[in-house]
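thought: user wants a sequence for this fold. calling inverse folding tool.
action: design(structure=
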């Protein structure tokens, strides 16, 4: 093992002869601004040490055994146990255990045997000449009791502490820390319980390198192989500690020697505390945090934690981390920016972090943010975040000095792993019938602020005052620890004098493993006093702190508010799973119901739509039917076309034939006498279809159409009201569903959208239907008025015609009765029926509304059949509209062809059956000459006239009906 040795002047002088000095100043640290004062201070320390040295070791030994039985635990301690030295420090110095008069009250015997590493003791042991009397026999007795036999010679160094040697050689990894629970004896802990517990406290010294080569002072000898630091100055002495790290030792070595075992024990269930203590700029932060090339204790511990988890598959772990700093005696959460800045997000005051204590958790800060971490990177990132928030400032010795005590706390929860929710992997719980609980342990990694003597600025002075006060309290507590063991003064230890000691209370009072890394510099004379103080602090800590750390119990957590997250999370996971299942089930039910309702709605809507469409189609068909009948196509009165079409269709479907046969038969069947009242005067029985056909096809169709349209109107009205009702229902249902759901999560937007669009569609359909209904109603009323007018016109014309025929017949009868031999009718003019008319007289008969005119022209005397025919042909002139000619032509085509000219005269009749006419005219001619009798001629003439009149009337009727 490489040993760095700096040869320094050996301390000398009989310290025992030095008088005890007055108590040290209240300053945390001595202030040796000048060499003279520093020397004075060292001299004063020497005096104190010598004063504390017992005059009779044997008597002290007795007391020591009482106060601190079995204080020796490690081999190093045992090796140096034979040499004991008592010293005292200025009582108010943070590094002096006897501050505030405590040292004076302190029983020297309690320190004497239990301070194997005190410089004086080591120095004594190193000095075979025995400047300090040694009760070798007593020590031997004790060592024997511990199972170690030390001869006086053996008790005298220079042999290095074996256990430390082995530790520093790397064997420390195989030498676990002691479990005061288990009762197992560690190879390095061969003594009783106290010794075992002593092994749970490691105190190490790290000497930082000088900034400049060759500037190392000569006052110090650092022998890491021997775990020795020797001060060669006046107040010098040898200090043996558990580990001594030379300036060249790196962080890995430091970690492995003083922290690795502790970290692994924490993973096993012990509480552990590591803290760095020393003067400002001596490498505390460097040791704890390190650099990227030279990672410190914290990153190495983090790596180890996760390595342990990997190596321990039978357990499951949960890690949470917090990071706080104590700055000017106030606690700040370094992971919570609001807490750290002292103001909330919106400027409101944040709750002050306080320290609390309970039996399970010990002393803890609250409220404090804890973050659960799952990887080393994550953990280191959280810590790095806290580091950034930490208060730093420039001091005389450190450009970036930590102005606060920083505490990283990693809480480790672990439990036996459960396979499928049943027994743990190792079957332990299965044997006990219960699953193991959760074990909670805590690793605290603390980088203390550095003690400093003087500060230049007010801020630094204030910080320094707080830092020094807390460090002084720490020293005081540690100094009084051994005293408190016996006399039940534990409760009176000044833990509460500072936040730091309060927070460290569990560790200092022995409930956790503890490793203290003290840092010091050896470069300049100015630091010697501080370094010496650091060494003394280390010695006291090593001597006084006793750890009875026990593995944490595995506790079954039933308390929902428990801090044990692992179990709580398990509970929560189980609960959430249950809730999830319930929710999923409920959601499925709801979805099913929704789907069903939706489906029903859709079917309903579909049905409504189908019905609506059908109705619309039906109405459209009706409208098209009217249109196809020429309602809107004629240039003249629309009713004409309608009626024509209606009649035309009637003809085409007339039973018993079509064409000319059909018309006369129909006409003869419905004689003039049978012409009844117009349809509106008919009984208004909608079911009496018979009436429709009774008054001719045109009237019947019209009436039927009116009735059908009325029925349609009623239907549509009913249907529209039904649709409106449904719409109302749908709207209500939709509203109620929306209000019930009343949740933004409901995916009703789509449904509502589609429903709204359907409603809009229906609205528009209803509007369309209404418009159509209006159209129909208008049409019906128009048809009605048209029908009324037409019927009136029909009646009028028929009356006129009947009258004229009657007149004609009566005149003929009169003529024949008065003079049977009278010559054929000679009149200057005559109409088709033979009525005498003035020659130039033209009787114009207007047939409204068809505007058909029949003009009468004088009939020339009948001379021959051909002449008569021609005359007759010319006798009648009819003016017919174009639209009326076609059906007439079509109907009469076999016997009568009427040319489609604007003015139709009998000249245009080309194919008329003239046989009868010729026969008749022969008769007439015969009368004139030697022809038939007058009666015969009269009869023949009458028949022809009647026939012709009938033909004309038929044509007129057809036209007028149309
Ligand atoms: N062992 C070491 N090896 C190399 N450099 C070191 C060592 N110890 C300290 N240093 C350097 O010394 C300087 C001060 O160290 P550091 O900040 O760790 O001191 P400190 O004890 O934390 O001081 P303070 O209490 O003021 O915060 C740093 O630049 C650091 O890198």
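)
observation: tool returned 962 residues.
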């Amino acid at each position: 093992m490489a040993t760095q040795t700096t040869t320094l002047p050996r301390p000398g002088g009989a310290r025992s002869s030095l008088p005890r000095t007055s108590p040290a100043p209240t300053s945390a640290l001595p202030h040796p601004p000048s060499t003279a004062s520093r020397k004075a201070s060292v001299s004063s320390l020497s005096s104190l040490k010598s004063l504390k040295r017992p005059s009779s070791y044997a008597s002290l030994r007795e007391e020591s055994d009482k106060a601190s039985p079995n204080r020796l635990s490690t081999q190093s301690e045992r090796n140096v146990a034979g040499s004991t030295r008592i010293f005292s420090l200025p009582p108010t110095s943070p590094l002096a255990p006897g501050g505030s008069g405590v040292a004076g009250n302190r029983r020297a015997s309690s320190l004497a045997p239990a301070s194997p590493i005190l410089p004086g003791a080591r120095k004594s042991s190193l000095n075979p000449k025995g400047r300090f009397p040694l009760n070798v026999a007593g020590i031997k007795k004790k060592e024997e009791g511990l199972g170690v036999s030390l001869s006086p010679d053996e008790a005298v160094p220079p042999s290095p502490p074996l256990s430390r040697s082995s530790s520093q050689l790397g064997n420390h990894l195989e030498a676990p820390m002691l479990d005061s629970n288990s009762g197992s004896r560690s190879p390095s802990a061969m003594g009783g319980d106290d010794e075992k517990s002593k092994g749970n406290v490691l105190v190490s010294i790290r000497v930082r390198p000088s900034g400049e080569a060759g500037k190392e002072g000569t006052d110090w000898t650092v022998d890491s192989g021997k775990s020795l630091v020797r001060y060669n100055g006046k107040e010098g002495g040898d200090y043996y500690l558990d580990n001594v790290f030379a300036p060249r030792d790196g962080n890995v070595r430091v970690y492995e020697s003083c922290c690795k075992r502790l970290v692994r024990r924490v993973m096993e269930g012990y509480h552990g505390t590591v803290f760095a203590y020393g003067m400002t700029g001596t490498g505390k932060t460097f040791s704890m945090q390190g650099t990227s090339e030279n990672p410190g204790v914290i990153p190495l511990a983090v790596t180890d934690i996760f390595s342990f988890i990997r190596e321990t598959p039978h357990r499951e772990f949960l890690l949470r981390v917090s990071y706080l700093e104590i700055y000017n005696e106030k606690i700040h959460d370094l992971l919570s920016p609001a807490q750290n800045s002292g103001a909330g997000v919106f400027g409101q005051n944040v709750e002050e972090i306080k320290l609390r204590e309970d039996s399970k958790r010990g002393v803890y800060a609250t409220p404090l943010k804890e973050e659960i971490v799952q990887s080393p990177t994550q953990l280191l990132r959280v810590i790095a975040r806290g580091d950034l928030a930490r208060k730093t400032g420039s001091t005389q010795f450190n450009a970036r000095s930590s102005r606060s005590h920083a505490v990283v706390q990693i809480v480790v929860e672990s439990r036996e792993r459960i396979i499928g929710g049943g027994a743990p992997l190792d079957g332990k719980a299965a044997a006990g019938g219960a699953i193991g609980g959760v074990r909670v342990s805590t690793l605290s990694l603390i980088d203390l602020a550095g003690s400093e003597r003087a500060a230049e600025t007010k801020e630094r002075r204030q910080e320094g005052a707080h830092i020094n006060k807390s460090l002084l309290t720490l020293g005081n507590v540690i100094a009084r620890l051994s005293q408190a063991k016996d006399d039940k003064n534990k409760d009176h230890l000044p833990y509460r004098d500072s936040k730091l000691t309060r927070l460290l209370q569990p560790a200092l009072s022995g409930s956790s493993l503890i490793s203290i890394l003290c840092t010091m510099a050896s470069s300049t004379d100015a630091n010697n006093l501080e370094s010496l103080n650091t060494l003394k602090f280390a010695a006291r800590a090593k001597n006084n702190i006793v750890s009875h750390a026990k593995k944490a119990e595995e506790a079954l957590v039933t308390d929902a508010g428990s801090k044990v997250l692992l179990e709580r999370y398990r509970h929560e996971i189980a609960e959430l799973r249950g809730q999830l299942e319930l929710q999923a089930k409920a959601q499925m039910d709801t979805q099913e119901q929704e789907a069903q309702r939706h489906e029903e709605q859709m079917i309903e809507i579909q049905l409504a739509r189908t019905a609506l469409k059908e109705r619309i189609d039906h109405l459209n068909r009706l409208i098209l039917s009217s249109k196809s009948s020429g309602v809107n196509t004629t240039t003249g009165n629309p009713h004409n076309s309608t009626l024509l079409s209606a009649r035309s269709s009637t003809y085409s479907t007339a039973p018993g034939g079509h064409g000319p046969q059909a018309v006369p038969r129909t006409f003869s069947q419905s004689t003039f006498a049978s012409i009844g009242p117009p349809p509106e005067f008919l009984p208004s029985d909608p079911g009496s279809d018979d009436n429709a056909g009774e008054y001719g096809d045109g009237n019947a169709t019209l009436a039927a159409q009116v009735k059908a349209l009325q029925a349609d109107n009623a239907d549509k009205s009913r249907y529209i009201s039904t649709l409106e009702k449904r719409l109302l229902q749908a709207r209500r249902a939709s509203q109620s569903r929306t209000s019930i759901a009343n949740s933004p999560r409901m995916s009703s937007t789509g449904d509502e959208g589609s429903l709204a669009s359907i409603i809009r569609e229906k609205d528009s359909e209803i509007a369309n239907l209404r418009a159509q209904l209006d159209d129909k109603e208008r049409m019906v009323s128009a048809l009605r008025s048209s029908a009324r007018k037409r019927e009136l016109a029909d009646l009028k014309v028929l009356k006129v015609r009947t009258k004229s025929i009657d007149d004609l017949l009566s005149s003929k009868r009169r003529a024949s009765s008065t003079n049977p031999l009278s010559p054929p009718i000679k009149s200057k003019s005559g109409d088709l029926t033979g009525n005498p008319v003035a020659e130039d007289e033209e009787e114009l008969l207007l047939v409204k509304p068809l505007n058909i005119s029949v003009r009468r022209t004088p009939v020339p005397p009948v001379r021959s059949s051909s002449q008569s025919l021609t005359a007759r042909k010319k006798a009648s002139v009819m003016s017919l509209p174009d639209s009326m000619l076609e059906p007439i032509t079509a109907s009469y085509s076999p016997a009568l062809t009427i040319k489609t000219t604007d003015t139709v005269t009998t000249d245009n009749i080309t194919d008329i059956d003239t046989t009868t006419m010729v026969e008749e005219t022969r008769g007439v001619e015969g009368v004139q000459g030697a022809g038939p009798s007058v009666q015969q001629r009269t009869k023949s003439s009458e028949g022809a006239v009647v026939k012709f009149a009938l033909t004309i009337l038929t044509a007129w009727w057809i036209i007028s009906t149309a």
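thought: summarizing for user.
answer: Here is the designed sequence. The longest strand covers residues 315-327.
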